[in-house]
Amino acid sequence: MSKVFKKTSGNGHIALYLGKRDFVDNVDSVEVVDGVVKVDPSGLNGRNGNSLTCLSDLYLFSVDSNSSATLPVVVFVYLACAFRYGSEDLDVIGLSFRRDIWIQRVQVYPPTGGNTTTSPMQESLMKKVGEQGHPFSFQIPPNLPCSVALQPGTNDSGKACGVDFEVKAYLANAADNANEVIEKKDTCRLMIRKIQFAPVNNKPGAKAEISKQFMMTDKPVHLEASLEKEIYYHGDPISVNVKINNETAKVVKKIKITVEQLTNVILYSSDTYTKAVCTEEFAETINANSTFEKSFKIKPMLSSNKDKHGIAVDGRLKDEDTNLASTTLSQGDKEMQGIIISYKVKVNLMVSGGGLLGGLTASDVTVELPLTLMSPKPAEVKLD
């Protein structure tokens, strides 16, 4: 393990350790999120002001000097998938622009005596942390969305809208009090990402065709478009093959190819937002009663969409570079919540009017092709 990610609570009593922050979704299953929490029991003494914190073999508890009641001190870890639909600076008392899509919580201290099996990652972390380390693990359901952010506007500040995953360890005074207010100094948190990589096996790309007849013509314009392969990697040129059979007296003046990003936001309702992330126009002329065949290359890039508000990008940690959001792969048997990403390529022929009516009979011929845009799976690094 070359790197360890650590976050310590403000009071220094607990620390959260992770061996990685990217967890791969293989569509049918997701990598287990596992880590270790370091708990310093001696640092908890007197954390409740006038109360005295005692440690027994069975439970850690606080005894108030003026009361016979006991306040147990418990350390929890939770993993939450949340959708943020407003900037953090818009949050006000009693209203947060954030909704938890999925959340799971486990108690790590005092140990509950549950599953004691540890992963190789946890064993490495335990060697670093020592006897005060307590392992935890979460299994993310495969029907949760991947980490996605919506690109903010130029004047926006704070955390971007989108789907994120957070691991948080915290100290609580009760095991089952959902309404307990946890002080910030008693927490430590790390953001993680749920990501998908392109499948290893690529298939031939989609094909679509259309024949369109115009007013005052008895024969059509036939358009066929296809992609060389089903999956393209971010930053690679996309090859679009175009075949045209113009049996009319009209002239095709231009070919326009557009890549559109479809962002399906499923929260309280389902809404789809479509934004063009790449548009290229090619001045190709296809005269009346002629045929045409050519392959065009286009390249959708985030660098060409930096000023577009609301473009979906792959979730990132801190201010690292990212790219356009990857296509969301799913099994299709369970409905997802959050943000679902897909792409399509539109091929549009701009056909000019001919004869006496001229531009009044001009029209377009359009076909659409589904596109899968993703990142390749990195090569695994073997450690000696």
The description of the largest β-sheet is: 7 strands, mixed
Order of helices and strands: EEEEEEEEEHEEEEEEEEEEEEEE
Rg over CA atoms: 28 Å
Spans of 5+ residues with little confidence (pLDDT < 50)? 49-70
Quick one: how many beta strands? 23
**Oligomeric state of this protein:** single chain
In terms of structural class, how would the helical and strand content be classed?
Answer: mainly beta
Protein architecture, described:
This protein has 384 residues and is mainly beta. It has one helix and 23 strands. The strands form five sheets. Strands 3, 8, 9, 11, 12, 13 and 21 form a seven-stranded mixed beta sheet that branches. The protein has a five-stranded mixed beta sheet with strand order 16-23-22-18-19, with no helix packed on it. The longest helix has 10 residues, at 120-129. The radius of gyration is 28 Å and the shape is elongated. Mean pLDDT is 83; it is low at 49-70.
